[in-house]
């Protein structure tokens, strides 16, 4: 029995009421309920038909396939492990609704006490509730919700993601061994192990950490790129090393954008029998590179080009890559746009036509290409001296248009003409109109922006 009859008979009505309520609430609280169910749930975490079980099984198969040198099979099993991890994460998110519990006791369920006055003022029957347990009084007045993902679901999600990460890493380790044999040597194999140590289950958003999911996705992209033989070996090795050595989440995203850009060029845009290059230019002593079949690609005048290739259209392409639109607003970018425009125009007689573009990997915040360039960063000494920071007129979009340089945003190509007309239309809007357009989704994608701004 949960009714405190002893205190009631003695005339201690407040204590009897409070103890009765506390006893009932304790029985029906989420923590108490979990004690009865936790053991059963824990035992079920690794059953074969659970996401964790499927992730573990697939990861084990990926490891064995990689050890046998079957990278195609290993990659396939690693994909299955990640799919299972995604299912576990989705289950944890959906479980949040299930975890919400209401702690509010109906008036008619507790005998020997008059709860009609709860919340109405002081009285003998409510004194114990208010003075002994204020939080419980609040629960009785309005109900208390305790909402959050189920602990076991969170644990399962993390374990499944760890299995998927391990599987991705096993495939990349074997791919690295193969790459060393065909000329992609510009990386430290230990960079992968360092990335695995840096990866966290749930990075603090304020510390710019790398999640295990992001690490797994990055490793998969690097593995695919590293195995593409029509990408120059030195370029593959260099990109692999730079990406795996990323210390923060934003740095990883930036390097990964380059990996994806060079991979896409190799898969669907480069001319048959030619090589795709990454990170070439005068700074690294690679201003002229062999495309294959005796053809040479000359990037003289460009200190560092992210991607360079001869396209199936017969043109030589030079690509600068940014993860987000905000990256194009830095002061020094206007100089690189000028160099790209000059390279595009000043081709030697008889050389293939040239096309330069800025490629923005994510459409999130891409519309920042219409913002003004940021002023040049000043040193501490310059700031103390009161020097004015150098500025440049216009936006990245207008500068690209002036130089005849196009853009590609999340796969959508925008010509120099379109960039100019979009920039002019955008600048003709008031601040309120711009804010409303962004808030309503009219600038969410380049296609939506073209329609909103009336540009064809």
Question: Could you walk me through the main structural features you see in this protein, from its secondary elements to its overall organization?
Answer:
By secondary structure, the chain is α+β, with helices and mostly antiparallel strands. The chain has 18 helices and 10 strands. It has a 6-stranded mixed β-sheet, sandwiched between helices. It has a two-stranded antiparallel sheet with strand order 1-2. A two-stranded antiparallel sheet has the order 4-5. Helix 13 (333-345) links the parallel strand 7 (316-322) and strand 8 (354-360). Helix 15 runs antiparallel to helix 16. The chain is globular and about 80 Å long. It starts with a helix and ends with a helix. The relative contact order is 0.06.
Unreliably modeled segments: 31-43, 102-145
Task: Tell me the overall shape.
Answer: globular
Biggest sheet, spatial arrangement of strands: 3-6-7-8-9-10
Report the helical percentage. Answer: 40-55%
Give helix and strand order, one letter per element, not per position.
HHHHHEHHEHHHHHEEEEEHEHHEEHHH
Round the Cα radius of gyration to an integer and report it. 31 Å
- Percent of residues in beta strands? 5-15%
Q: Specify the structural class.
A: alpha+beta
Largest sheet: 6 strands, mixed
Question: Counting H and I runs of at least 4 residues, what is the number of helices?
Answer: 18
The number of strands is: 10
Mean of residue pLDDT values? 83
Q: Could you tell me how far the N terminus lies from the C terminus, measured between alpha carbons in angstroms?
A: 77 Å
